[in-house]
Design a protein that fits this description.
25% of the residues lie in helices and 27% in strands. The chain is an alpha/beta fold. It is globular, with a radius of gyration of 26 Å.
Amino acid sequence: MKVVVLGGVAAGTKVAAKLMRENQMNEVLILNKGADISYAGCGLPYYVGHVIEDKASLIVNTPQMYEKLTGVKVKVNTEATSIDRENKKVMAKDVLTGEVQEYSYDKLVIATGASPIKPDIKGIDLENVFFMRTPEDAISLRKLIDEGNCKKAVVVGAGYIGLEIAENLKLNGIRPFVLDMAPHVLPGFDADMADYIERKLMENQIPVVTGVQVTALEGDGKVEKVVTNKRAYKADLVVMSAGIRPNTAFLQDAGIEMFKGTILTDEKGQTNDADIYAAGDCAMVHNAITGKPAWSPMGSTANIAGRSAAKNMSGENVSYQGVLGTAVCKLPGMNVGRCGLTEEQAKAEGFDPISVVTAEDDKAHYMPGAAGFITKMIADKADRRLLGIQVIGQGAVDKMVDIAVTGISLKGTVDLLSNMDLAYAPPFSTAIHPFAHTLNVLMNKMDGTMDSFTPAEYLEGEAKEYRVIDTCKVPTIEGAQYVNLVDVNGLIEGVGTDEKLLLVCNRGRKAYLLQNRMAAYGYTNTKVLEGGIAVNDVEVE
């Protein structure tokens, strides 16, 4: 079988290598626009920050090494310009000489990836304006930083790469400022969790301004100022991280079905042409919960989808079950991770979601390095199926996310997952695993044994008519009546049984225990503030 693969990096090289492992008699050729076919794109921010010192570490495989390892033939600096589906041919040009050649195929794989969005604004081509997609981008940026002439930076885009770049700029002594058009940082997090992340970023000297649009870059030869629709920001350098666009313009007249420039594929990685497959950042997959097309420009997705496509081309019958939007990110003072549907997405998809936010230890509190997880968990009220999770903490948030990925993938209910025999030892977890703890709290809420406000509801003012009762370890909330849980053995002096009461403690647990005890003494209108003051900024007017 003669296979032409357009593009390398993650998806292209995975498809090609797997095809050769399936059948050494295959004739597989990669045509790659750039000189590097396999590099660590996700590691680029860490090279900028000197976390990764050697630039050679960014290159996973050279074309020569890859050819020897796999038997795949590679042509670099070769860009596909058009496809003749009827005659099964690809036209491609040498980007150095402009020479055009024709390549025939039995099967074609489109893995051309995506490129950074370059806004059509004044000053975008000024010196010291960077994008972050290739090793050359990271090398050029670090070279400028190491010269020591930059003090202030503006990062445009508060997604995962943008915030990772901001952290690594700060590690180099540069003061970063992050701007984004969206109302909150990090797509895939609900507003309440994003709000918490933004506050923590500010505490770590990375201010983020959301809801602003960059309209121009100004400077004499090199950038000096970023102009937005609200105000201007001084900058010695700018990193544009405002999204990516699939590299599919050359397919405009090919008859390949696309959505917003992204190639539509089925669960086998196949396009509307039975002999053409697509994978990676240029292709759509589908959401594992909704079954709808989903764009997942992640190295993990590219590898899984690429491997699956190669097996199907080789005669197997493999279906890719889809993505959950799983992501994890290291930020200053915290790690963040998520998977599944947000509460907002779940509503939009027709679910009746219920969520809970907890603040819980990530390991035994007496162990060195113990910290906590802020966890938001979402399930469907009707069938009690787990739908999503969002986690923030200093420790291994990925283990919480990965447990949720497993549970969601198996269509697990909160009841089933709450009884899993998860690993426990003091250096690793708590006796009641923080994942199980959050499930228990969510089930209490679903079953009506806990009545609460989420941080989102609190932010929206739903607790405005409620009187705050401070039930922290020690009196903490200025202006609130303090009630010590252990002292409550009947009616509480000065607190009416029919009053609207918001019970607030450090994390939420004591407030729940107080609610339970107060109910026994006739209090009928109490609400627990989920996450307590660990998550919420509580003020008494």
